[in-house]
Amino acid sequence: MRIPNNLILTCAVSLAIFASCTPEKSPFDVSPADSMDPKRLEQPYPAISIPEDADMESPVWKGTDLSPQPPVIPVSANEQLKSFVLQPGYKLEPILSEPQIREPAAIQFDGNGRMYVLELRTYMQDIDATGELMPTSRISRWEDTDNDGVYDNSVIFLDSLVFPRYVVPFGKNTILSMESNEDNVYKYTDTDGDGKADKKELFASGLGRSGNVEHQTSFLTWTLDNWMYSTYNSRRIRWTPDGVIQEPAGNPWGQWGVTQDNYGQTWFQDGAGGVPQSFQFPLVYGNFGVKGQYKDGFREPFSLVKLADFQPGMRETKPDGSLNNVTGSAGNDVFRGDRLPQELQNKYFYGEPVGRIVRQVNTEKIEGLSYIQNPYREAQSEFIQSTDPLFRPVDIATAPDGTMYIVDMYRGIIQQGNWTQDGSYLRTKIQQYQMDDIAGNGRIWRLTYEGMERNKEKPRMLEETSAELVRHLSNPNGWWRDKAQQLIVLNQDKSVAGDLEKLVTTSENELARIHALWTLEGLNALKLDLVKTLMKDKSPQMRIQALRASESLYKYGEKSLAADYREMIKDSSKDVALQALLSANVLKIDQYEELIKSTLAENQSEGIQVVGTQLLERIAKEKEMAATKFEPEQLALFNKGRTIFDSYCATCHGPKGLGTPTGGGELIAPAFSGSQRLMGHPEYAVKTLLHGLNGALDGKEYEGVMIAMDSNDDEYIASVVSYIRNDFGNSGSFVSPEYVAQIRKETEGKQGTYEFDELVGEIPKSLTLQDNWKITASSTALQGVGSTKDPSYAFSYKGWKTDGAQEPGMWFQVELPTAQHITEVQFDAGGKEFPIAYSVSTSSDGKSWTKVAEASGNPGANTIQWKAEGNARFLKIESSEQGEQPWAMKSLTLYAR
């Protein structure tokens, strides 16, 4: 891992910066470097260069003012305050600014209230996105040591990152993060208490996405249901003591922002679409279209900046030069603090950095469906407006002190280089106002309200016991409730189950009851009788939460709950009835399709009709897709494997692949969902089924023992392995009966059941790309704005390809720092750009080569194996035929024994 080694922002430097400011001058009077240069205003206004092929009569260009204009001038944070237009009674104050931070894009707080800042230091440093993927971004951690409201003490927790996607505090001195063009989420821990991460561990895989940096995964968010959601991924993940599991979910339709309300409803923020998404029902139930969910006029922003400097051009410009349609949004939060007026509680907020506004969203619930509007629309206003063109609100957060924090990148360009290329409308407007060199700044603001002082209690949750954390579940600030629940679940301390049950059954605080219920669920200590009692609670919201939490019990085998779902579809509350219908469908209870049809006939409420109709349409589509998702031979294996699993394996591994709990709450057998062992090399699962497995798995004991199943034929084994690698949220390669036969023959002398360490020692290990690997190629194409010709992208989601059509003799080479017993190569060739034919050679010195394997390429996944006679430091993949298309590889993996 890359450990921070360039400590630019040490605590001492930060304190020195503040100490150097006189009492009469706040540190926030320090201006950005650009504004400190008086020559900026003295420069002649630039002549505007109009692209030769620009159609000045098109809706994009027609009416454009291209006359020379004064440059936009960046100002200090205190000077910027004068530009804000706020609703009566509200006040903004800066709590952190440049030069201490640069390019802040998101913030998160750990259990002690320390603020982690995601600094995207390579984002649009010039108009061409030069160096966008250089490893110079960072995650810094900040603390207000004297409790004066200003963050004064910092450390670089994690440095030298490639455009990181998010920061997620995850227990004591630990965060989760993922870099761009990668598929893995890593857990970073400070083990020695110096404030810098020194340990890196794989947390989860399969959550990455390649391409434009604005179109990749962001905001991995732990929510009320103890699952974690991110943008772009149609799946959710969950930490458990036995590993990270995954489940399919709907499409979040989000780009930069995931948050939740007091009742666990997730909200995703679309980017270019400019509107909230997937806010009707929790994402696990899928997507639903609701006509009119955005009320008339919702898409119209009321901006005070009138430069017409946005990518859609004049077609989305009001006569005064301001934006007429939301076109970019970033960062979101349902405000759940207690130090702003009650009217803001549980309201959704997001930034529109193109319009330079922060929008408030009010929700109206009608017959179970949600409809949203800007509450200031009639006044043609917004919750926050600014006249400063550099105000770029990109994240919003409920803070531990009960107020709202707003992250402002404060920069000239807010759209990535794909939209600022030569000849574009946006590039012309940026250069007209000389905004292309205003970068490297950033402010974080606190929003307060007159007469309401921020909460000055400093959280100390990371030092508290689980019993002490329980009291925070009743805190009026949702941040405290969320963090306490997360930490108790991470502790897995079941000694507090009694206290939590008491809180659920006796408290008059509904939100405290809800968090206690879900904390029990997260501890695997939720009892069936408690859930059934809550299903009859006088509060409709508690009945809804009981239904949702009960789904975990159903997945672990409590099939009697199906009767409760059927009964609660008739609930007097339309919201409860809808939840029961959604639970019955997602769990696929017996005859659920017929249940949906009968409910549609009996209940004419709008929500039931909209949801029920779309569920039936989805069921029909799923049936159709089931026959086309896999190749015929794969579908046959999948279906046979599912039948075997349901009738045999589910007893121990659970009907949903989550494991079956014992009476004490432990699991009889490990979960399959998201299992790194299962989704690694298929040899692990095949050998386990053939010969059985005994002993602790990664130090975790299970009650059950995996017996040998070698009495079954090769197709049986291949079916089960293929099924479990492609259900429960998993997506892996299929295993053929021929492959099973090969492994069976190779291990026919095996005596007795495998011990875990013995089996793991035999399985090929994937080699993780390290900084000291040397990757070269005979030809490498430049891919995307701001990219470099780097063949190591073959190991990422971004991918590598040749610069032109493939030819015989083209090669891709890896030099390892030490020799390895390499036996296999896997890569994804995408659609059409696969190698027609190729060979693999190895070498100990890079001079004398031995060809070890040859193969024909395929679209999608490619695997080539060989029996290695010895170790090698060099590996070369070489094209052996002419092709019309380039040769491409991504997610390249080397396996060694």
TrEMBL record:
The lineage of its organism: Bacteria, Pseudomonadati, Bacteroidota, Cytophagia, Cytophagales. PANTHER family: LARGE, MULTIFUNCTIONAL SECRETED PROTEIN, LARGE, MULTIFUNCTIONAL SECRETED PROTEIN-RELATED. One of its GO terms (molecular function) is heme binding. The keyword Amino-acid biosynthesis does not apply. This is Glucose/arabinose dehydrogenase, beta-propeller fold. Gene3D superfamilies: Cytochrome c-like domain, Galactose-binding domain-like, Leucine-rich Repeat Variant, TolB, C-terminal domain. Keywords: Heme, Iron, Metal-binding. It comes from the Bacteria. Residues 762-897 form the F5/8 type C domain. Residues 636-728 form the Cytochrome c domain. InterPro entries: 6-blade_b-propeller_TolB-like, ARM-like, ARM-type_fold, Cyt_c-like_dom, Cyt_c-like_dom_sf, DUF7133, FA58C, Galactose-bd-like_sf.
